[in-house]
Design brief:
The chain has 166 residues and is an alpha+beta fold. The chain contains four helices and nine strands, in the order βααααββββββββ.
């Protein structure tokens, strides 16, 4: 049975992230977080961390969306591919159509408490089968009998985010 799927790949970035790209994302999102924290906190009974801020002002739930703008240019540098996730033949595989940022935690005075998650989503792919812990996939979603395929091994940070039987 074939299905249309979107795969999702999630990374967590914090102060201990070692890749240069991750460090730039960390620095820019933390800088933007401190600005947004001030906007949503107000002067009465100021709080320091994100979860206290959410309890104080439910509108602070918009902060992750607002932080996304500080990541957009970095994501565009990827040119639509996560190169660290090759297919089983070693070819660059993981195409990125869009992403979502979630704010795991942060503290306006302590950068070591700042942690974000980035989830990258593929365009729609055809899931033809699962064979020996690998996805047999095709980028060609047109309804036809033959597909150009590729195989992608299961990965602990990759999940099927969308599934539709065809």
């Amino acid at each position: 049975m074939k299905a249309i799927v979107q795969l999702a790949f999630r990374i967590v970035i914090d102060q201990n992230s070692t890749m240069a790209w991750d460090q730039y994302v960390f620095n820019d999102t933390y800088f933007e977080y401190r600005i947004q924290h001030q906007v949503f906190d107000g002067k009465d009974r100021p709080v320091k961390n994100y979860w206290e801020l959410l309890a104080k002002n439910p509108n602070a739930e918009r902060i992750p969306f607002l932080l996304s703008s500080s990541v957009t240019n970095y994501v565009s540098q990827l040119k639509g591919e996560i190169r660290s996730l090759p297919d089983v033949l070693g070819n660059n595989f993981f195409p990125v159509e869009h992403f979502k940022l979630d704010l795991i935690s942060s503290n306006v005075e302590d950068p070591s408490k700042h942690k974000i998650g980035l989830t990258f989503y593929t365009p729609e792919l055809v899931l033809i089968d699962i064979i020996n812990n690998t996805y047999l996939l095709s980028k060609d979603t047109a309804d036809k009998k033959a597909f150009e395929t590729f195989m992608f091994s299961f990965h602990p940070q990759v999940a099927i985010a969308y599934y539709k039987v065809i």
